[in-house]
Every structure is written in C-alpha cells, then in structure tokens.
Design brief:
By secondary structure, this protein is an alpha/beta fold. The chain is built from twelve helices and six strands. A four-stranded mixed beta sheet has the order 4-3-6-5. Strands 1-2 form a two-stranded parallel ribbon. α4 packs across α6 and α6 runs parallel beside α11. The radius of gyration is 18 Å and the shape is globular.
C-alpha cells in the first residue's frame, strides 16, 4: 500500500503507455528545470552523461517503455512500472535482473519540495541516468542477488549500503565531491544540504556504513564518499554476510538525529 493514500498508481493502456495530464507534465517540467540548476554543478559525470544518453528533458513525463528500451540498448538494464511500494523480495528480484522499479504517479504541487514515497520524478530523474553506467549496474545486480539469498535478520543492515550509495551516495571526482544518489538528485533541499558544510561527508568505509542508522524523513546528517563506481561494484564480491554480522556485533554508531516521532 502507498504511504500516502491520496496517491494512486497509474495503469498503462494496451500499448504500455501511461497517461499524464497537462498539469502533471507541467509539474515534471518545473521539477526538472529547477533541479537542473543545481545538478549542472553538483552531479557526477556518469549521471549527466546518462541523462543525455536517455534523452531526458523537461518536455513531458517520460514513458516507462521508452526508457526501458533505451536502457536495454545502453547497458542491458531496464525499468518496470510498479504499483508504488513493492515487497522487498520483488524489489530485490528486479535489481538482480538489472531492472529498477518505477512508481508511475507524479507528485502534486503541494508536495513539490518533499514526498516521502518515491514518485516517477524520483525514480526516473533520480535513478535512471545511473543505470547507463556498467559498474553501477553491476553493483545493483549483485546487490539484488545477495539480498535474495541473505538471512532476513541481516537485510536491514544490507539495505544501509543501498541507502548510503544508490539513494544518497557521493563520489570524489577530479578532486571534487559530486553527487549520484537519487535522493540527492531529485531533491533541491537535499542537494543543497549535501554540498554544504552542514552535513558530515565521510570517506566510504563498509563497516562504518553498515553501522550507521538513518531516517527516511529528514535531510541526511551524514553522507559517504566513494572513490569510483568500479570500487563500489567490487564491494559486492567481498564477504558481505560476515561484514554485516561483524557490524551487528559491534553495534550501531551514535545516531546523528532525534528518534522519529
């Protein structure tokens, strides 16, 4: 079920086309143009190149089937329209197949700045460009495969790795820190916060990541900076179950936020 019951997932027609109103397309355009002002300076190369390769523009909400076809040609990755939030095993199965789930509704104007549940702007604008990068896709595929095989008690810690990379990751590029996580790419307030001096930006360390708690409904107080997407993919070849068990044994780092109300 959606976190916000006032939103409903769209259903495609017989040709796989989702219908968006003029106002919904206008919301996409406004979000796109507003965010690109920030990302031209702060996005990593792979993201900007991916956006160009996918021909993402402000013109209209992209169609899932068109995006899927382009990704298939570029990296063998893809996207699938889904009914908002999906079970973890379905999510992980899609990742293991190099496919990313896409919620097909778009936020309304009253939720322009923040929507707790991911919409198509977050999914497509935030995630899809990175699916053109082979190393990033390899990380995603291996992550999904591991998630499907891991003992359930270890999954929350594994998904911390996803949170601090795929959703809120930073990368060091030519001596500068750039963003690639979709939660940063799709949020004006998050990208400004991540690039300011108001948040911790720590070198990526697997043990530290696995021991760092997070909240989904606040600006992140800490981000982790990877050195390369190749190195990120290589992490999935390590003994992650043992690393997670070690992190659990050591206990969480002190939370940098208040407990949720």
């Amino acid at each position: 079920m959606p976190l916000n019951p006032t939103y409903e997932s769209k259903t495609p027609d017989a040709e796989g086309v989702y219908s968006y109103s003029a106002d919904e397309n206008a919301v996409w355009a406004e979000l796109f143009d507003r965010q690109m002002v920030n990302l031209k300076r702060h996005a990593c190369r792979a993201y900007l190149q991916g956006q160009t390769a996918l021909n993402l523009t402000a013109d209209a909400v992209p169609q899932v089937k068109d995006l899927n076809a382009r990704l298939n040609k570029i990296s063998g990755a893809g996207v699938k329209g889904v009914a908002a939030l999906i079970p973890q095993d379905e999510f992980s199965t899609l990742l293991s197949e190099r496919r990313f789930p896409v919620a097909t509704f778009i936020r309304r104007r009253e939720d322009m700045d923040y929507l707790e549940e991911p919409d198509i702007f977050h999914e497509v604008f935030g995630h899809a460009p990175m699916l053109t990068d082979e190393s990033f896709c390899r990380f995603m595929e291996r992550f999904g495969t591991l998630a499907l095989s891991l003992d359930p008690p270890l999954l929350p810690h594994l998904f911390r790795l996803f949170w601090f990379t795929v959703e809120f990751g930073l990368i060091r590029e030519d001596g500068e820190i750039k963003a690639f996580g979709a939660g940063i790419m799709s949020s004006p307030s998050e990208v400004a916060h991540a690039m300011s001096g108001n948040a911790q930006r720590l070198p990526f360390d697997l043990e530290t990541v696995l021991r760092t708690p997070y909240r989904i409904d606040i600006l992140q107080p800490v981000y982790f900076v990877i050195d390369s997407f190749e190195g990120l993919a290589d992490i999935m070849s390590s003994d992650l179950p043992s690393a997670i068990q070690q992190a659990i044994a050591l206990g969480d780092r002190d939370a940098q936020f208040d407990a949720a109300a």
